[in-house]
Amino acid sequence: MKLTQFSMFSFVFIGFLTGCQPKQEDVKLEVKLNDFQTYSAEEFFKTTSVFGSSINQDNTAVLVSSDETGIFNAYRVPLDGSAKIALTASTAESIYVYSWFPSDDRLLYHADQGGDELDHVYVRKLDGSIVDLTPGENLKASFIDWHEDDKQFFITSNERDPKYFDLYKYQVSDYSRELVYQNVTGYEIGNISPNGRWLALTKSNSNSDSDIFLVDLTSKDKNTTMVAGSAPEDVAFGVYTFSPDNQQLIYASNADGEFNQAMAYDVKSQTHTLSYATDWDVSFSYFSEDGKYRVTGINKDAQTVLDIVDTATGQKVLLPNLPAGDLRGVNFSEDSSLMVFYLNSDTSPSNLFTYNMGADAAVRLTDTGNPNINESNMVAGEVKRFKSFDGLEIPGILYKPKQAGKEKVPALIMIHGGPGGQSRFGYSGVTQHLVNNGYAVFKINNRGSSGYGKTFFHLDDKKHGDHDLKDVVFNKKYLQSIDWIDAEKIGVMGGSYGGYLTMAAMAFTDEFKVGVNIFGVTNWVRTLKNIPSYWETARKSLYDELGDPETDEKRLTDISPVFFGHQVKNPVLVVQGANDPRVLQVESDEMVAAIRKVGTHVEYLLFDDEGHGFSKKDNRIEASNKYLTFLDEYLK
Asked: How many beta carbons lie within 10 A of that of residue 135, not counting itself?
């Protein structure tokens, strides 16, 4: 089962990844505040990041990616609780699994080269040998789904035209393929019906308006038919999934309010009905393979709440008592007798569980935490809100360090990527490392963040570096009102778009003592002119939000920190991946040079083997250690 999520933005921040297993002698502990302990980055990353929930054909194992060796590889996790088995042994590139084959234990996965995001799709055969299903240079490919006959599967690739993705059908038997949909008009491929007949496409008209089309792949001309669009006002639509009987397309619509709700389009009658609605965004919706269960994800105030129902009775599936945490990655066996899922929380990384439907208890299959860390020394976040410059209420997640009970502590405003991302609950080695070592962290969801309605989402359109930056400044004022925070020691940090706002805060205000810019955009004109070719279908939407570099060059220049390095007065740390295709290394190179030119202190950490986000444990540890030493010297 492939989980499909709809997003109204394309320029996304990959983010901080967690997990590490260093040598024991690298671990440092310090005792403070009686029994309270602080831990090094090595300890907080001595966890294992695990994802993937494909169940194999005989219900004996789950396919996962795990970074326990320092880099993601594919593993077989037996459902009987015995030890997992490594299926790949990569030491250079992270391997991200898709799925077992439907009738045997071959598997599909994807990997890029050094973080360049040019993914290829690979099959690991039963003898352990690897076949690249999408060979070639400078292409990007992705697995879409299996055909219900278990003999075919579908992959997209932009090898024909770097700007657009075509759809190919592969044979399970010999991996031969045929082009089944040539994308010449710039659609985004959404999903395909289980019988391989109906292909759902989306078309972005603006950053607030999009349409959905269907293509009958069995027809000769393969003409597209609009099924959702042409609304009298801007409405964003997106594809969730098809029903297992191939009769309905389940899609997202914000036509009737602030939030995405799930709609059902009946292919035969061409009618639309409400499928699922709530007071928050429906993030995704999908079915078990036999249609017995439906899983719906709701983005409720920065965390995902799952609604799992029996489709025949409409009754919710009640799970036995589980540890605290959010359910993620729910998947079912082919006959729906077995369910697997993850539990994740601020203080515990994701662990995989299996549950026989109707049983008295679920069985935990992984132990991803670090036993050296007492969970009571970690901190769970709490949703807080403050009023910004215009009275708008801004949400975020506040982490209060244990040290705040006896002394005032410095604070960091942590800004997510995007634009249009969202700070969310969940385990982060970086966050816990900083909070454990005495820093309050406020993860702001400034205007323009997703998850709080379409009006809130569009409030920063072409106001970047202005209204969103003012939210960050007023976040500082809110933190200064808290009696356990040191009002004179507040810094700002973020990655990607959050890195941009960090540099904007340091260049355009004198509010913050330090800034930590993690692969942040510093020259909007160059970045928008050099977006990856395969983002072509989202180009207009991106320009609608940020500005067209050809027509808005002056405004984009005026909000680009690289041209204002002389205004940076306080210390800055810049972190960058050399292979980043979204924010090119030259952005950080020039920002560092501009700050150094006027004598302000700036430090630069460059990873030669990373892209837009750090996938290797050693690099994540080095980065987290650098954040702390820099902050200890220049903020604390």
From this structure: 10
Q: How many CB atoms neighbour CB 483 within 10 A?
A: 7
Residues whose CB is less than 8 angstroms from the CB of residue 558 and which lie 6 or more positions away in sequence, other chains included = 465
Between the two ends of the chain, the Cα-to-Cα distance in Å is: 48
Q: Which amino acid is at 316?
A: K
Closest C-alpha to 44, from 310, 375, 311: 375
Mean pLDDT for all residues in the chain: 93
Give the C-alpha separation, 85 to 482, whole Å. 49
Burial class (CB in 10 A: 0-12, 13-18, 19+), 30: exposed
Q: How far is it, in rounded angstroms, from Cα 528 to Cα 23?
A: 43
Total H helices, total E strands in the chain: 10, 37
pLDDT digits (tens, 9 = 90+) for 214-240: 999 999 999 999 999 976 778 999 999
Q: Cβ atoms within 10 A of the Cβ of 96, count?
A: 17
Angle CA 202–206–209, to nearest 5: 60
Amino acid 232 reads P
DSSP assignment of 244-266 equals TTSSEEEEEE-TTSSS-EEEEEE
Residue 100 CA to residue 232 CA, distance in Å, equals 44
Peptide bond into 419 cis (omega under 30): yes
The rounded distance, in Å, linking the Cα atoms of 92 and 94 is 7
Q: Is residue 327's pLDDT more than 60?
A: yes
**Pairing state between β 440-444 and 393-399:** antiparallel
pLDDT digits (tens, 9 = 90+) for 524-583: 999 999 999 999 999 999 999 999 999 999 999 999 999 999 999 999 999 999 999 999
**Continuous segment of H or E residues that includes residue 471:** helix 467-480
Tell me the C-alpha distance between 175 and 243, whole Å: 27
Helix 617-634 to helix 429-436 angle (10° resolution) is 30
Element housing 575 (H / E): strand 572-577
Say what the pTM is. Answer: 0.92
Q: pLDDT-derived band of residue 20, with 50, 70 and 90 as boundaries? A: very low
**pLDDT of the residue at 321:** 86
For residues 628 and 625, give the distance between their C-alpha atoms in angstroms, rounded to a whole number: 5
- Residue 323 buriedness (CB in 10 A; 0-12 / 13-18 / 19+): exposed
Q: Are 241 and 251 in contact (CB under 8 A)?
A: no
List of residues 6+ apart from 82 with CB closer than 8 A: none
Bridge-based pairing of strands 515-518 and 485-495 is parallel
* Cβ–Cβ under 8 Å, residues 579 and 615: no
Does the pLDDT at position 18 exceed 50? no
Q: Give me the DSSP letters along 583-629.
A: S-HHHHHHHHHHHHHTT--EEEEEETT-BSB--SHHHHHHHHHHHHH
The secondary structure element, H or E, covering residue 546 is helix 539-546
In the numeric block, which tokens belong to residue 180?
Answer: 């089944």
- How many other CB atoms sit within 10 Å of the CB of residue 390? 11
Between CA 121 and CA 35 the distance in angstroms is 49
Pairing of strands 393-399, 382-387: antiparallel
Q: Which residues contact 71 (CB under 8 A, 6 or more apart)?
A: 90, 91, 92, 93, 94, 615, 616, 617
Residues with Cβ within 8 Å of 565's Cβ and at least 6 positions away in sequence, in order, are 507, 591, 593, 594, 595, 597, 598
What is the residue type of 234? D
